[in-house]
Write a structure and sequence with these properties.
The chain is an alpha/beta fold. The chain is built from 18 helices and 11 strands. The chain has a 7-stranded mixed β-sheet, with helices on both faces. Strands 1-2 form a two-stranded antiparallel sheet. The chain has a two-stranded antiparallel sheet with strand order 3-4. Helix 8 links the parallel strand 6 and strand 7. Helix 9 runs parallel beside helix 11 and helix 13 crosses helix 14. The relative contact order is 0.13. The mean pLDDT is 88.
Length: 357
């Protein structure tokens, strides 16, 4: 069952208002959303749920449940993304954040890094309003103001390069983004990864703001309040790349360990704030300390923000991130001050820095 997945593009195409449609046939919208994003493995889905989805999409179960190697990961060098919510090549990636949480900075940084790797970057934001729009439009190679313009531009480059397309939520609400995806598919241009953002912050209040997604990046207000960037929630952010066959077992094991520690660490923060750390059992103190250090390690300077942060951008290969996270969870950073792990690269680089007297 590890290499089976929902045919999310088919659902997206045939059932645009999936939340309301799911409700109408007795399905919980949250369950459908979690199946689409990979939070609930397909093997745990009830047969009646899959049958109802097939009915909604007017397709067979064979069309709804697909097998294959789709879901290749795009490695970004951004530690928290690559660890917890890898970007899905050729998929649809949704950003959920309120204004001021840095979603457009993260998108601009992703585009900057992928452009350096030879990807073509396109922005389609006909009605975009909100803080930080210029962050992404200045980073992209091509900026379009209409579906027709985007189709022409992507058609011109899509035969030669992988295309990274960013669009705002207005194109989802009007259905234009689905029209564009259909037209590109009909033109045999399948190498397009779509990033959906909501500069106005309205997506936060919706159960399923973009329809089915391959990767969901949920931004976190509590992390913002403590100036932990990128403020991508390690618990709520998900990716279908992590469904068994798409990453190796080492990545899966480390990611699951890290998520478990981060979930408990977040619970313990409230207790520490209320009662102090001295009253906690030793096992919880250890989880709290390691969670705190892992959280600090996952902060990272961005290339696109160098002018403002005065810190040089840092890229960390996935294997280094996985090795570092495993070592932190095993206690290798227990003797380090939390601040020494902030805004850093690899753990070896941190350990090699001379200690301040």
């Amino acid at each position: 069952m590890d290499d089976l997945k929902l045919n999310v593009p088919l659902l997206r195409k045939r059932v645009p208002s999936l939340t309301s449609a799911a409700r109408s046939v007795g399905l919980r919208p949250a369950t459908v959303s979690n199946l689409c994003t990979g939070k609930i493995p397909l093997g745990r889905a009830e047969v009646r749920t899959l049958a109802a989805l097939a009915t909604l999409a007017e397709c067979s179960l064979d069309e709804l449940v697909i097998r294959g190697n789709e879901g290749e990961m795009i490695e970004t060098g951004i530690k928290t993304l690559d660890l917890f919510s890898p970007l899905t090549l050729g998929g649809t990636i949704g950003f959920v954040a309120r204004p001021g949480m840095g979603q457009l900075v993260v998108l601009a940084e992703v585009f900057h890094r992928l452009k350096e790797k030879g990807y073509s970057t396109v922005v389609l934001m006909p009605n975009a309003e909100g803080e930080g729009i210029s962050d992404i439009t200045e980073t992209a190679e091509i900026v379009c103001s209409s579906i027709e313009e985007a189709f022409e531009e992507i058609s011109a480059v899509g035969q030669k390069k992988e295309v990274m397309l960013a669009a705002d939520r207005s194109t989802v609400l009007t259905g234009e983004i689905y029209e564009l995806q259909d037209r590109l598919q009909e033109a045999n241009i399948t190498s397009v990864t779509t990033f959906l953002v909501d500069p106005r912050g309205e997506a936060v209040d919706e159960i399923e703001p973009y329809g089915p997604l391959d990767t969901l990046l949920q931004f976190d207000a509590e992390m913002i309040s403590r100036r932990l960037y990128p403020a991508v929630n390690p618990i709520q952010s998900t990716s279908t790349v992590l469904e068994g066959a798409y990453v190796d077992s080492t990545h899966m094991t480390i990611q699951q360990r890290a998520r478990k520690v981060m979930r408990r660490y977040r619970e313990l923060r409230f207790l520490v704030d209320a009662y102090g750390i001295d009253r906690m059992p030793d096992a919880d103190v250890q989880i709290f300390n390691r969670g705190q250090r892992l959280e600090a390690y996952l902060t990272q300077p961005f290339y696109v923000a160098e002018e403002f942060t005065k810190m040089k951008g840092v890229s960390v290969p996935l294997q280094d991130t996985l090795n570092d996270v495993r070592r932190i969870l095993d206690g290798a950073a227990d003797g380090l001050e939390v601040n020494t792990l902030m805004w850093s690269g690899t753990l070896d680089e941190i350990l090699a820095k001379p200690k301040k007297n």
